[in-house]
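User: Hey, my collaborator sent me this sequence without any context and asked if I could get a structure. I don't really work with proteins. Can you help?
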Amino acid sequence: MDVSHLLDELNEAQREAVTARDGHVLVLAGAGSGKTRVLVHRLAWLIQVDHVSPLGILAVTFTNKAAGEMRERTGQLLQVSTRPLWIGTFHGIAHRLLRMHWKEAGLPEQFQILDSEDQQRLLRRIIRDEGMDEAHWPARQAQWFINARKDEGERPQHIEHLDHPVTSTWVHIYRLYQDYCNRGGLVDFAELLLRAHELWLEQPDLLDHYRKRLRHLLVDEFQDTNSIQYAWIRMLAGSTGRVFVVGDDDQSIYGWRGAKVENVQLFGRDFPDVMTVRLEQNYRSTGNILDAANALIAHNQSRMGKNLWTAGESGKLIQLYTAFNEQDEARFVVDQLQQWLDSGRRADDGAILYRTTAQSRLFEEYLLRENIPYRVYGGQRFFERTEVKDALAYLRLLLNPNDDAALERVINKPARAIGEKTVSFIRLQARESGLTLWQAANECLSQGKFATRAGTAVAAFIRLIEDMRERMKDWTLGNQMQGAIDDSNLAAHYEKEPRERMETRFENLRELVNAADAFILPQEDAEAGLDELQSFLSHAALEAGETQGESWDDCVQLMTLHSAKGLEFPLVYMVGMEDGLFPHQRSVEDAAGRLEEERRLCYVGMTRAREQLVLSYAEIRRMHGSENFCRPSRFIDEIPAEYLEEIRPRTSSRQPWVSARPSPVRGGANTEWPFRLGQVVAHPKFGEGTVMSFEGSGEHTRVHVNFPAIGAKWLVLAYANLQAR
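Assistant: No problem. I've predicted the 3D structure and written it out in structure-token form, which is a compact way to encode the shape of the chain:
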């Protein structure tokens, strides 16, 4: 039989994997090494050469898109229908099994699947029915606890809580929830896998049937499997199955959602005589990018080891830009992107990768300013994010309590016992009386139209807004923003969410405070009579209202490093390369675990670039309302100097670039700095302080002064009236 069409396009290592003997195979597939091609050709090889029945093959991957691509490419290669093949996601195949064997699985024939929102709604009802305080036992946290336990294969009776009051309560909620699901024939996503695994355990005859039938198991993205998925594969394989797994321990970046990179190493221990094949030839990136990525990932101790290489050219050196601050960083990136576009390249050939979603704000702002189309991949624009809109709604009420949309958004966020029934009553009164919601609520209070509990809650909300407005009227915009977040208890509200989402929301709220603190009233707004608060809210609304590009549009791609996995671009910017930001602060102290995962995330980011990779960091970054001196990411130091081209030498202090945000212009300002770094100066309102740095030049110069009484402030020299001491 002529099988040249299965091998001609493959390199030596790929052929070795595709034609492997009848046994267990571990393919360590480096970034850009053609793992999907190997999986598809292996599948075709089993059918055409080893004469394995398509009914005897199970291929599992992690997304419906990847499963569809595998099915389509296999069909094209074999020129036959792929319908008999079991190709799908873990959840999809588990669902198929449970539909076929619902009785053996202890389910009703017409069982229903709960999506994430339905699951959360059911948990909320259970918590309420138990008379528990939702503020202390939020449904989202219960959902996270239950799904995490199911991913570990644990039922309520398996969890040791040792009468710990918190853990035992979550276990109690888990038990009530599972009882409710069992009575109603409901199955959530995590239950699909756990129930399918229990099907093997509790039905040995059925397990034996599938072991004889599905003798060849192919698993994609093996480094992303969790405990229950690995146990499921082991159970199905038994002693007769042949398991072919493809993965890359250097690209395991989802430990925070249950993925176990250890499964790659366990595979060789749990399965006998495993053949290991390393795919190291990269078809994506230039030599310099690959050599730098290899040097970086070599610092991880718990890895199986491989070295990416390319038959292509060495390419350009990796550019390293040392920005003065985060605005300088954004300006530099956008200026370079504009040059890229001017050279005739496409916008969607460029990507900006960052560690946290909050970092997108400044890049969005500068791209908008230059009219460069962009898309936030897999996420919302900064000013459209829920927590940002919530916080801004409180500022809108400070400015105008008759803003009905803002009032409806936050009257019960955080929960303050003002339910939908009460809000509907206020709406009705407003409509009948021709009033705003704020006016109608006050009128109902004065006329005693509310029930006692509802009236108390509405009155407390109105006092909150009035007290905030009176107390903050002379505060700076940044302090108003922080005060609104603090006084409204929004942070406490978001603490109820799963840790990863909670931290993302907190980062976005902190970035919102930074945005407000750095905001300078544009000259045209000042001439129009707007104050800082009015101008800032208008600015936020206009940015949120701009429609971002669709996936098919030619626009610059903005995304987190996690979202970038599986993608590639000719030009990649990895921004915010600072210790505490990337690697993230919570990982720095855990060198054996989280820090290694952060390094793998950096490796993933670097290997997204095909032609040019640019790294950047800021010497000073505004965080938590103040300027902080930043240390370059340790990952930069782990890249050998011969692969780096420093666009701007690192120094402890130097003249910064001009700030990109326009400042008010006033005649007569000096073009030279009137003070030196470290000099003590006096401000008529803030008292004495020390000059830390400058930004800009001429009439746009800003000076950064640390005042012991109130902290660090950026001041425009044309306005500040500073006196040397």
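In plain terms: The chain has five domains: 4-101+194-281, 112-184, 297-381+548-646, 384-532, 680-724. You can pass these tokens on to your collaborator as they are.
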